[in-house]
Design brief:
eight-stranded mixed beta sheet, four-stranded antiparallel beta sheet, binds zinc ion
Length: about 475
Amino acid sequence: MIKKIALFLVLVVVAVVAVIAFRTFSNTPQTPDIAAVTVPEIDSMAAARRLAEAVRIKTVSTGLDNPVAAPEFDKLHALIDLSFPLVATKLKRETISDHSLLYTWEGTDSSQPPVLLLAHMDVVPVERGTEADWTYDAFSGTIEDGIIWGRGTLDDKQSVFAILEAAELQLAAGFTPKRTLYFAFGHDEEIGGGNGAQKIAELLKSRGIRPAFTLDEGMVIVQGIMPGIDAPIAFIALAEKGYLTLQLTASTKGGHSSIPPRKTAIGKIARAVNRLEENRFPASLQSPAADMFSTLAPHMPLPLKAIISNRWLFDPILISELGKGGATNAMVRTTTAATIIDGGTKDNVLPATAIATLNFRLLPGTSVQEAVDRVKTVIDDPDITIEIKQQNEPSRVSSKDVEGYRVIETTIREIFPDVLISPGLMLAGSDSKHYEDIAENSYRFIPMRFGPDDLSRVHGTNERIYIENYAEIIQFYRQLMENIGG
Ligand SMILES: [Zn+2]
């Protein structure tokens, strides 16, 4: 009997190992056969100068309570007209909420749904105290050693200008798109897009316009960031996480600190924050993060490849390992970050209230309401009130099995033959969310080449872009216009 059980166990182990090995080694890269295209010459130095000029205009979004930099937007609009004369004369331009721009490039075939290219013209301010850390002033638009320096060269004036450069080139070449192309450039993305993108989306909706897809900022081409993969990887984000800021207020009786109660307001708020950190949101590997791992698995070194190719067995280990990293953790769960704490003014006075602000980034599929309910349950303290300060539901997950995704993928292969392509999840937010009502699929990708230290330049110090890469971005949009509109 024991012999039989032992034999049975051996057979089970052999079978499991065989399945793991089969699934691992049959998981080979699937790269469609798309050849690189020859692209027309462009004057990249002249394009770089136009972008540098845009960087010098301070279209800074400072906060919801502050007025936008109105004269600066007027200057930027004038620069755009001056820089792109064919766009200015041949495309219809509408101004929305005084500062956002909507371009319409009428197609010849109205039976085809249009495509909407998105970008934003505002930038974040330079954090006070870091001005001197910049190699060149943040708004100098310096061009040096093949690099354009300054705020907005990665987020997101490079995209506004590259789209317009591409359109200008296409117009000069006599191109007319079959399907209508829209370019929507918001002016307040960095403070939520409520007056820009949201209003443009409402206008398009009122006209009954239903784009086949939208393409916006989001993810990029990264190299040297994904463990075990040396090749550059272009991530096309299929979704963006939701955004939720909660203010927790603990209220107790104030008074003199010589006769304190058993639980102070500060103690209560500290306990609440601690409970939230100790009880993280549950982790799960869902689309699009799951699509990303399955797409890249064939390119990964053996142990990782075996684990990801056999999720039926290794999922608990995989998810737990992903939960240990920073960015990988953010891909598998709704994250919790305590960002502001406030309470008390004097060393011998008990504050009546203590306040903590927490910022959550919601995984697609987790609603704001579900997150708030969970926070309440975890804190489990009737003396703490919870107030929603800011909220955006996570986006839908767009399909990677439709024409929109495929045309972006094809364009990347044509312009960047050396890169791998994968779906991805955008951890930050974009204007795309405002267009969910009118476009079923939204993709978030700009072919900027990022190394390990480039992500910190976005919203950070020494934002800059290589002219060579900027020219590639222009070529990408130009080819995309050919592919979707030709
Ligand atoms: Zn941006």
